[in-house]
Amino acid sequence: MKVTVIGTGYVGLVSGACLADVGNEVLCLDVDPEKIRILENGGLPIHEPGLLEIVRRNVQAGRLLFTTDIERAARHGMVQFIAVGTPPDEDGSADLQYVLAAARNVGQYMNGYRVVVDKSTVPVGTGDKVRAAIAEELAERGEEIAFAVVSNPEFLKEGAAVEDFMRPDRIIIGTEDEQAIELMRELYAPFQRNHDRLLVMDIRSAELTKYAANAMLATRISFMNELANLAETLGADIELVRQGIGSDPRIGWHFLYAGCGYGGSCFPKDVKALIRTGHESNHDLLVLSAVEEANDRQKRHLVDKIVARFGERLDGLRFALWGLAFKPNTDDMREAPSRVIIDELSRRGANITAYDPVATVEARRVFADKYAGLSYAARPMDAVLGADALIIVTEWKEFRSPDFDFIRTALKQPVIFDGRNLYDPAAMRRYGIEYYGMGRR
């Protein structure tokens, strides 16, 4: 099958590469010439484990191509995936300008039946807007060409996106067009040979499903963070509480870890957009408003612990900070807790030496020269040497079992603020380290 993917971000590039890997002829379109140059030269504009090998393999096989030519892309694929960004607008709603521009481009240049697939995370009702945009372009051309619009939301975790696409939990297809349904079944057949994972529904339900999934996961995170803060006050241990409730099969183990807040390109944006959708429909989503407020507060909770230990002014102190990306296995720093923590510490006069296995380049771009006291280390222990305390912000695997004897002697004061509860408080006491976790006794 010939497939066009519009947009080469996390969703578009992973989708295009994985579809090519099972034999489809995929053309990826991006209006950014620099992205296309990087891809054509064998590189990646993003960090995603396992993706580079798939891209190179399929480029070499001739199944995966890249272009900035909009007309070529619209004429290539019977299936046209729209996988462009939907950044939050000033009021929190999703900005659809790139989605609708992509739809108009398809309508302007399509030369046969097309299935236009919304892969981007979009508000309920976007399918109608995409259909109208394509119809307007066709009317302007004086053409009557059949097409269908499908909602096919992505459920890809950054850092595990390739695995998620290749072995999906479910595949949501939102449309009532029978021809489009059969084409989508054919396209996704290689990814569900074990059993049928494809769920067909109306387009509005599919659009809401994506938002509902991310909002539910964000709710679990904020709920556990609220409980962790309460546990600190009550003298309880949130890790033991997690085990106690996670063993209940009605609750399960996923997304029950307390920490310093969620970030990334999905949860913050999608929670905001769903709140806005509710507001526009005269249904205020009180739970989600609380989830967002709790997360904003949680990103500062680790700083509150530091201030309680060292004082409101931190002039003359230097902190080692491990972890800049919002989660492991990515260099994505959008809405990352590290950004808030670095800002709050810098505002109080502190110096920070940060280390991250892959996000340092992105951090230099994000922060530029904003903080005079921010520097970067090439190795985690280089950051620790001579610092007044160590702050854990991202739960990278290489942070799980460090040399605690070295950390104790390398720090001016043997103090660790663990924003991800990587370490056991009792073990830290045995090492002679003053330890502050999230909701730990």
What does it look like?
With 441 residues, this protein is an alpha/beta fold. 45% of the residues lie in helices and 14% in strands. A 6-stranded parallel β-sheet has the order 3-2-1-4-5-6, sandwiched between helices. Strands 11-10-9-12-13-14 form a 6-stranded parallel β-sheet. The radius of gyration is 24 Å and the shape is elongated. The model has no long low-confidence stretch (mean pLDDT 96).
From the helix content, strand content and strand pairing, which structural class follows?
A: alpha/beta
Mean pLDDT across all amino acids: 96
List unreliable stretches of 5+ residues.
none
| Gross morphology | elongated
Q: Helical content, roughly? A: 40-55%
Strand content: 5-15%
Strand order of the largest sheet: 3-2-1-4-5-6
The Rg value, from CA coordinates, equals 24 Å
Q: What's the number of helices?
A: 18
Question: How would a crystallographer describe the biggest sheet?
Answer: 6 strands, parallel
The overall strand count is 14
Distance between the termini: 57 Å
Helices and strands, with pairings:
Elements: E1 2-6, H1 10-21, E2 25-29, H2 33-40, H3 51-61, E3 64-67, H4 70-76, E4 79-82, H5 97-109, E5 114-118, H6 126-141, E6 147-151, H7 161-166, E7 171-174, H8 178-188, E8 198-201, H9 203-234, H10 238-246, H11 267-280, H12 286-298, H13 301-310, E9 318-322, H14 337-347, E10 351-355, H15 360-367, E11 374-376, H16 380-384, E12 389-392, H17 404-410, E13 415-418, H18 425-430, E14 434-436
Parallel strand pairs: 1-2, 1-4, 2-3, 4-5, 5-6, 7-8, 9-10, 9-12, 10-11, 12-13, 13-14
